[in-house]
Structure formats: C-alpha cells, structure tokens
Amino acid sequence: MITIRKSEFIIFDVETTGLSPTFGDRVIEIAALKIKNLKPMDEFHSFVDPQRKISWGAFLVNGISQEMLEGAPKAREVLPKFMEFLGEGYLIGHNVGFDLGFLTNELTLIRYPLEKEFMALDTVKMARMFLPGLRRYPLWFVARSLGIDRIQQHRAMSDVRLTFEVFCRLIEIAERNDIHDLSTLTKWCGRKSRTEKNYFNRCGG
Q: Among all residues, which ones are annotated catalytic?
C-alpha cells in the first residue's frame, strides 16, 4: 500500500492571459511546490512570455501587467524545466483541470514529446468529499472554512502555498476517516491525464 504521507506530490498553479486556451489564452506565470511526508522539499517559479496581450479581466484578478513580463522566458524555455521538476510525483491543484488544460496546451504548442500518464489530485474534489456542507468551493473559501488565515492573492506561488495548507488539512480529515492509502484517495478525488502525440487526452475525473 502506498500511503499518502510517504508519497511525493507536486502542487502547481498557473496564471494566464484569460480563461480559455481554446481561444488563444496563454500561461503567464507557473509555480510548483514539491512535497513529501507533507513537508516542502523544493519549489519552482517562473514568469512566462505569453506572446500576446493580457486581458483586462485577467489583470484585475492576478495583477500581472505586460510590463512585469518584459524579458520573461518563453514557454519553450520554461516548460521543459518545469516538466523535469515534476518528475514522477503526483500533481495537485485546486480545480486542477483548469491548470492542466493550460499546461497541456502549452506543451502542445511547443511540441513537447509526452508519452506517459499523469495522475492529479483535485483539492476541490477533496473539499467536496470531506467538507460536504460548504456553500461553495473556491480556494479562499475552503481555506477559511479550514481555519487557515491567509488571503488568496491569485498569484501562482502564493496560491500554491495556500493549496498546500488546504491539502494538509484535508489529509488530516481523510486520516481521521481512516483513509491512508493513495489509491483510495485518487479513486475518489483524482483526475487521470494520458499524454500521447504531444497532447493530453484527459479522461476520468
């Protein structure tokens, strides 16, 4: 049995020019925190030149301006380093499908060769499972409901750290409910993504 506490996870988050890669929106910031035994081990952060304008709506959310991205590396420089950082760890994100969608789009655009399957845990699904009485499940609201006194800043690394705190609290609840193995948690709260021919074919979740 692979226990949750002994597993290696990578919590990640992206900030973007808008809401949809289908309509050309791109990643402008990416961050990740590698953890094991529910303790931070290493982190990754980079701005990314999106090669397009940032929407006014996105700027109002994350506060990242066009000027802040001057001189930032392009996706083809950042993404291979990011994928190396991910290694074999399980991905974690809050509403992780959104972040996976942008990540896979960026990998497709740079023709990054991918032929393996990724498993991701969604802390939204975890919160719905372990905190079923909440009225809503945005990250800041789940954090507040768990007694975490931190403001969500909608910046990649700060949101990663907030997700880390939320994840740890949710794991404590899982363990109180006698859920200790990773396979059980991923069965209920996981999202599987299969990568073939430079694109993710998301299934399940």
A: 154
